[in-house]
Amino acid sequence: MGESSAGFPTADGVCVTAASSPAAQSGAPSPGRLRQWSSRHSLLLLALAALGCLLPFSTKAFHVDDPLFVWTAQNIAQHPLDPYGFRVNWYGSEAPVADVTKNPPLAAYYLAAAGTIFGWSERALHFALALPALAAVLGTYQLARRFTSFPLFAGAAVLFAPGFLVSSTTVMCDVLMLALWMHAVIFWMEGQESRRHTYLAAAALLIAGCALTKYFGLALLPLLLVCSLLKKRRFDFTVAYLVFPAALLAAYQIWTRRLYGRGLLSDAVEYASMHNRGHELSLLAKALVGLSFAGGCMLPALLLAPLLWRRKWSFLGVAAGLVAGLVIAVHSAWFNAPYARPHWALLSFEMAIFAVGGISAVAVAFRGIRYDNAEELLLTLWVAGTFFFAAFVNWTINARSILPMIPAAAILMTRQLEVAGKLSAIHFPRVATALLLGSAAISLWAARADARLANAGRDAAAKFYGQLSAERNRFSFEGHWGFQYYMQKLGAQPTDLRNTSFRAGDVVVIPENSTNTFGPPPGYTLSGTITNIAIGGSLATMSQPLGAGFYASVWGPLPFAVGPVPAERYMIARLVPLSGEAKTGTDGRAVVPACARTANQHLLAAFLRPFPFGLLDEELPPAIPSRDFRAIPDRRFEPARHSRLLAAQTAD
After folding, report:
1. Cα(341)–Cα(337) distance, rounded to whole angstroms?
2. 87 in the Ramachandran plot: left (φ > 0), alpha (ψ -120 to 50) or beta?
């Protein structure tokens, strides 16, 4: 690494001072000798910046799908050869976790090792997952050295992207997969150039580990194969190393089939296909939501767009954003955000801006690319393929699916800035650096907002369990994510739709902002109060009223949204029998047979739509014939989906 006259590093390993610059050679005065800047300084700076961004969130509560990974890791610690050999209530009734989770187990094995050694606290597991985040950032730096003289800028662009930083504060598998992906590509490129078998073998192991961390890692196989064949212009022995990860994944498919009755790799493909059929968006809507997530998650591409693109292209981008905003504002594109109507104008504006950033992030992959250069083509296919999968293939659009494209987009963006003269070894790039720091500030803001939301679930669990644990009547809860983790940790039980005999007077706690909440059972209504848990702030990552759906676009078409963040609402209600509906048990209390559920309007909003409290004050609709959920196999038990289909059949 070198550095400019203002101290900005380059990648050639030589200090670029004013004395060696063109200005100095022409007789301009020299500001003096500057200290050397090596690649070790850049790596150290990136490491310190990454730790500085992540350590403040080390006590963040487990959130969204974090509990599934923690529970799997705890099971692995006891039964290492049977990672999914336990049951969990995630879709409203207890089922084998192999029927629930759609991710391979390597991330859980990593958490199991960390938890066994350091304990199962939030701090311990977040510290453990900070290492893969650090490896992903440093891997970006190392890979960027092949494409640009400013790898430090590329590494910082990844770290300061909201999609990366917020994802790094979870204990899910995504950042670990990205770290393995980055180093697999690095070792593969080095191995192909040097023809060193150790590098190629290491790349093959990393590819296998990447795919066994998250199935999207399989995309490395065709990506590296195509680029290798283009580079060599013939079949080369090095591509034979790709057979190893493919064989290992085939062995995983056979192993899980023997353990759980079906291969979990093919099961994940079937799951995505089934759920895509369940709630298809139009191609226009998918494209707009995909661009919105790409622009918001890769925020540096939006903020640096004026430097990346010439004036005419910038005008075209702004025009495209205005058209997108108009289309959204007049509801010409359908989005699953019915609760965001009060803020629809703000949502349309934010989505249009993010869409411009998404266009910038995707288009930079194609600008100035030399299609005869296999390595440059690899980055282009990396960005384009990830965006296509996230926007048009995956069952929902989310930041976790956009995440893999962020390093490649950051490298291409940095190279384009260098080509355009916006990054220079002679003059410190004040504007570009300031814009990148602006992205860092917004990313930290989003990470703080997500941590507040996660912590609210933990606080709510402690509050309600303390209030209800002394209740003489039974109490249970609906909803999942971190709220479920902490309620179960305290000793509460989730409502089981197939095994609970509901009785008058039973207490149920229902969160509004959660998945898989179903309202009252047939023959009952709810009588209770709504408790607000204030979050505060003016940015949200998961809020239907603001249209923010960082983890799932069914919440909203934005990865995060600015606006007044509503409080988290929880209903504490007793079951009250409707006249003439309830039966009487042997103890004289009203009883509804286990697992009977009415497919009422609360379930008809959308797939996994949270229970809408706005309907609670209205008269319940006429009863629709209940569905005996016991007749549904565990792996197909998703009450929201089955109740919606039943209601549609009844209407017909």
Report:
1. 8
2. beta
568: which 2 tokens?
């988290």
Residue ranges per domain, the chain? Answer: 1-37, 452-651
Q: Which of 505, 443, 558, 477 is nearest to 167 (CA)?
A: 443
- pLDDT tens figures, 199-234: 999 999 999 999 999 999 999 999 999 888 887 777
Tokens matching residue 468: 């209800």
Residue type, 457: G
Could you tell me the pTM of the whole model? 0.84
User: In the structure, what pLDDT confidence band is assigned to residue 371 with cuts at 50, 70 and 90?
Assistant: low
The alpha carbons of the chain give a radius of gyration, in whole angstroms, of 26
Q: Using one digit for the tens of pLDDT, what is the confidence trace for 25-64?
A: 333 333 333 345 678 889 999 999 999 999 999 999 999 9
Residue 613 has pLDDT above 90, yes or no: no
SS3 of 198-230: the string is HHHHHHHHHHHHHHCCCHHHHHHHHHHHHHHHH
Please give the Cα distance from 593 to 599 (Å, whole number).
Answer: 15
What pLDDT score was predicted for residue 410?
96
Token pair of 456 as six digits? 């609210």
- The answer to which of 315-329, 424-438, 511-525, 560-574 has the lowest mean pLDDT is 315-329
Task: Give the C-alpha separation, 555 to 513, whole Å.
Answer: 9
The total of other beta-carbon atoms located within 10 Å of residue 232's CB is 14
DSSP per residue over 154-214, as a string? HHHHHHT-HHHHHHTTS-SSHHHHHHHHHHHHHHHHHHHHHT-HHHHHHHHHHHHHHHTT-
Backbone angles phi, psi at 95, to 5 degrees: -150, 160
In 449-589 the beta strands, taken as DSSP E runs, fall at: 475-477, 502-503, 507-511, 524-533, 539-540, 542-543, 548-549, 561-562, 568-577, 583-584
Whole-number percent of the chain with pLDDT over 70: 78
Judging by DSSP bridges, how do beta strands 542-543 and 561-562 pair with one another? Answer: unpaired
Between 122-144 and 39-54, two packed helices, what is the crossing angle to 10 degrees? Answer: 150
Highest mean pLDDT among 155-169, 357-371, 552-566: 155-169
Contact 532, 568 (CB under 8 A): yes
- Return d(Cα 16, Cα 23) in angstroms, integer: 12
